[in-house]
Write a structure and sequence with these properties.
The chain is α+β, with helices and mostly antiparallel strands. It is built from six helices and 17 strands. α1 crosses α6. It starts with a helix and ends with a helix.
């Protein structure tokens, strides 16, 4: 396979980026084939033996008028249809590269629109939330507003499943234990992302995140969108919400055309995975 031989001989270039500490390895596959096995993804994800990331994202050529197509992997090698903060990071990079202020991106989630929001901020429309049990998906038919789980969380789909608990104090939650438990709850056949959120002011939430296939993360874009939607549905907030996460602050605005998320991004460094590393991970 010539593409794989070329990759092994020359190494694999990547970018390390983050949105509020939610960190990513970004691989540009627009001009070269980049085969990624689950074993290679998990090797890159290791924070001691690899690079380390919450998600890995691949930038592939766009089709049907899109500027690029994005594919996302979790740290355990599984795939995800959506990753909001990675989408914002890549959108910022592509806009700077092409001198653009707006982009159209495709993902397994669907077509997403991104724009420069000014002051170094990037906005992405993550699409309409999925509120029906079968779309999220859940294991059986039920009201997604209050699930039959202790704490009566709300289920929301943002291209990936989310389970949001509203609690008095998000800081007091034993996130690692509860997150791991709920991720694998039988009501979620594809596992789920888990959020614990507290109302700290008018249209302001404090949120902590356990990501499916990753664990505790400093931030999550799709989780922020899901939590804002759940809070609005439950009458706790309006549709425009400020969320304070462990890594910083995001703005989420649930509009008629979708859920817009706005926040900062950072390109930390660029590097190249060596041939020895790539060979050892296959």
């Amino acid at each position: 396979m010539p593409a794989m031989i070329q990759r092994a001989e020359t190494g694999l270039p990547f970018m390390k980026m983050h949105g509020l500490g939610n960190d990513f390895v970004i691989v540009d596959a627009r001009t070269r084939d980049v085969p990624l096995s689950p074993a290679l993804v998990t090797a890159i994800a290791h924070r001691q033996f690899g690079v380390g990331f919450d998600q890995l994202a691949v930038i592939a050529p766009g089709a049907e008028g899109a500027d690029a197509h994005l594919v996302f992997y979790n740290a355990d090698g599984s795939t995800s249809a959506a990753c909001g903060n990675a989408t914002r990071c890549i959108a910022r990079h592509l806009m700077a590269e092409g001198g653009q202020t707006e982009l159209t991106l495709t993902t397994e989630r669907g077509t997403l629109y991104a724009r420069d929001a000014g002051d170094g901020l990037t906005s992405v429309n993550m699409g309409q939330p999925q509120l029906d049990w079968a779309e999220i998906p859940l294991a059986r038919a039920m009201d997604t507003l209050e699930l039959p789980i202790e704490g009566t969380p709300t289920a929301t789909g943002m291209g990936n499943p989310h389970c949001t608990f509203f609690v008095d104090d998000a800081e007091a939650v034993e996130l690692e234990a509860r997150g791991a438990e709920i991720e694998h709850h039988p009501l979620f056949p594809q596992r789920t992302n888990v959020q614990f959120a507290s109302l700290i002011g008018s249209d302001q939430l404090r949120m902590r995140v356990w990501e499916r296939g990753v664990g505790v993360t400093l931030a999550s874009g799709s989780s922020s969108c899901a939590t804002a939607v759940a809070a609005a549905r439950r009458g706790l907030t309006g549709r425009r919400v400020t969320l304070t996460l462990d890594g910083g602050t995001l703005q989420v605005d649930w509009r008629d055309d979708g859920v817009w998320m706005t926040g900062p991004t950072m390109h930390v460094f660029s590097g190249t995975l060596t041939r020895d590393f790539l060979d050892s991970a296959e």
